[in-house]
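Comment thread on ticket #2218

A.B. wrote:
> Attaching the input chain for the structure job we discussed in standup.
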Amino acid sequence: MSRINRPPVLPGDPASAAQLNAAYGDFSQLGAVDQLNTRDSAFDLAHFQAPGTGNGPVIIRSDSANVGTGDIYHSASPVAPASIAAPPTKTVVSGVLSYGANGQVLADGQVLRVYFNLAVRPKYTGTGGSPNIYPWDSVGALGKYDVPVRSGSPPPNAFISDNAHFWLVQLEWDITSSALINWVPVDGAGNFNGVVVAGRSGQSLQTMRGCACVPAWNLTHNRWRDGAILSALPTVVLDRRIGWTSASSGYVLLKNPLTSRTIYGLRLVIHGIYHPYRDANTNYAVLDVNLVAGGNSAELEYDQGNITAIFMREQ
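C.D. wrote:
> Ran it. Output below, let me know if you need it in another format.
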């Protein structure tokens, strides 16, 4: 390290070689004051070590992998279909973050941080009939409410939706082998396959780590007053289509004092459509299997994304 004791060079000072060398004589960097010798050498191991530990850099390893199509123009985007029965149909996003034949060990006292994103767009159609039944209008759909309409004799009813349905983009890993054929949810997350409440498949919100939620649609309702619709025509539900957006989330795991774990790969899967559900004191995300019926459809279109994983010391 160098200690600079000389006054700085000021505007108007001479710029001869001898004077500049004298002005910077306290700077002990060998070689040219360029990118390699100055910027790239500005940090050494002491900057990354916890005080008094001597354990080396905090960051052990950092890797990143692109997933999905890699197409930013959305020219031929794949889609994930909505599930019509439990367990949910999971669509695998192409591309993985692989750690090769030996994998990467997450040892005691180490932390894994994963960050992922994926470009997505919800898509859906109605039945095309009269009335044109969209997924949220389907018989048995969760969050669907039948409300009175003040006009008409006798007053008709109208259906509205609570607008709470969503897709899931979920992080999975292979902790078995480098063959990457044994994918399971990360620690703290479930597979959404089991019946959790009221005969419905899903997970409690406490077991949804490593998941990103994507709204399935964006609905508003007009002519609403005092618990009723003023008029059923020309329309009650206003469908505000969702364009391309980013599904992003993170995941953190501290392996302490648990046994070490070897991670061979990370990937993303898409499944849905889910709806909030509450029973007693527990909140759930449950699969709504009644949305696609009678010729309508619901899908999640997706394109490019990324998975970045960082292994680091706890301290």
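A.B. wrote:
> Thanks. Noting for the ticket: The chain has a mean pLDDT of 84.
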